[in-house]
Amino acid sequence: MGLNHIDYYHELIDGLSTQGLDILPLSELKPSSKPAIGLRHDIDSRPNIALHMARYLAMKGLPGSFYLLHSASYYTPENIPKIVYKMNVHGCEIGLHNDAWYYGDLGPQMVKKEIEYLRSLGAKVKGTVAHNSLSTYTAANYEVFKEKVLLDRESPLPLGKLSMKKLGLTYEGIFSTPKPNATSQDFLKHLSKKADIHVEEWVHELLVDNPYCNYETYAQFWLIGKDKWAVAIRGKLHWKIGLTKVLKLAETLPTKTISTFVIHPDYFMADGVSDVVNMTLPTPRRYKNIPTPIRKLGKKILQILRKKPDQRKIVDKDTSPKAQEFDYQWRDIPSPAIELNQDRIIEFLKFTKLPPSFFKDKLCLDAGCGSGRFTWAMQQLGAKVSSFDISPEAIEQCSKINSDAYVQDIYNLEPKPIHDFVLCWGVLHHLPTPETGFQKISTQVAKGGILHIMVYHKDTQKTYEKGRAQWPSLSHEERIKLCQNMIKRHGGNLHGWWDAFNPTYNFSYTPEEVCTWFEKQGFTEITITQEQNINIRGVKK
Questions:
Q1: What's the whole-model pTM score?
Q2: The domain 296-540 is classified under which CATH number: 1.10.490.10, 3.40.50.920, 2.40.50.140, 3.40.50.150?
C-alpha cells in the first residue's frame, strides 16, 4: 500500500488553509457563513506522527482534533500523559477514539474511565469518535451511548448504557443520526458484509448509501492510502482520487455546511520519527497516573500502627525465610489496589492488552498470585485458573476465591505445559536468579499459549534504591509513611511500594534484556504492552 511522507500532510494543510474555509475543532463544528470543516485525526497507531501533525497545525495557527485509541498498544501510563501534554501545548482538541466493544460487557465502564483519565491529565475531552465499523462487533462503538443507539434490537452487548450528556460530551465525531426508516433486514444485510475501507462497494454503502444512519456532514474526505482518498459528497463517492482533486472538491463546498477530513497517522511516515514517545514532562506531578486513594486506609492502618512491635509479626528481610518477606504484606496491609472489584478486571485488561473474549474457557495459571486479585479478574472473564504463591498467608487469602490455590516455590516447578495463559506479574524481579525463574515458568505454557510477565524497569530502580537504602533503619510507622509519600509523588499504591522496598532481592531490566529471555525459551510474537514497569508477553512455539 505504501505510506505518505509527512510532507504530504503539510501540502494538504497548506492547500486547505488558502481556500477560505472555516477550519474548526470538531467540538465547534457548525454551519457558518463559510464552508466549515473539521480535521479529524484517529490515532490508531504512530502517536509521534500525530504529534508532528499537531505541531505543524500549531505553526499554521490552525486547530485539529486528535483521538487517542484506548485499546492501542501505545496507550500506556508511560505514553499518554506525555502525548496529552504535547497536544495541549500545540492547542489541539483531544478526544477518545472509542473502542468500547473491544472490551465486551465492560465497554461502558472502560469508556467512562478513560474519559475521566484523560481529563485528569489536562485534556478537555468534549467528544469521542467511534473506532472500527458496526460489522466488526455487530454494533457501532458509538452505540455505547443511549443517544446513538441505531435500532431497538436484541444484542449481546450492553448498548446505550452511557449518557453523553451526563459525561459532559457535546458530540460524537462520526456525526451520524439513526435512520428512522431503517429495517432489521437492511441492518443484518450490512452486517453480513466484511468491513474493508479499501473496497469501493463497502465504502459506498458506509458513506453514501448507509442503510442504518444519516450523516450531518455535507462531505466526508477519507484518506485511505498513499495519495488515495475516498470522498463522499451528497450521494456520490469519488473513489481513490489524489490530493489535487481533493483540494478542488474542497473548493466547491457550500456555505452553511459542515464537512470532515478523516486522517489516520498510520498512513504516514517521517524521517527520523519512531513510534516511541520519548519525552520528559516539565510538570510531572500534574501529568501522572491517578494515584490510588489512600483515605480509606485510615482506620485499618491506625489499628496496625497501634499494635505493639512484637504483635506486628514484621520479619527482618535480611534473615527471614523468603516466604515470610511477603506474608506480612498480604496478611496485614489493606489496600484498595487488591480489592476484588471491576477495577481489577480493567487493570488486568489494560496491562495484558488482550480482549476479554480471549479468556473465555481458557486454562490459566497465576504464578505468584498474592491474594488473588488477578486470579479473580481472570475468573470473571470466564477462565479456569490455578494459582500459587510462596507465601502461605497469600494463599490463605487467595483460597477464599479459588479452591485451586496452593503454596509453591517457582524453582521447584515441574514441567507442565498445559496452560493457555500464564501470568507472572511482579514476581521474577524478587527472585535471587530471575531468569532461572522465568525458565521454570515457561515450562507451564502450552504450545500456542501466552506467557505474560511484569518486571521492574531500569529507569525506576534509582527511586526504589533510595527507599531501600532507608528501609532497614525505619520503624514500621516510618515505613508506612515512606510508602504514602511515594504514592503522593509518583502514584501507585501501598502494596506496590511496600513490595519494592521490603524484599531482599529487587532486580530491574531493560525491555531488550527481557525480550531476550523470551527468545531463548522459544517464544514468538513478543509484545511489550507497558514499559514503565515492563509488561511483556510472548506466544510459545
A1: 0.63
A2: 3.40.50.150
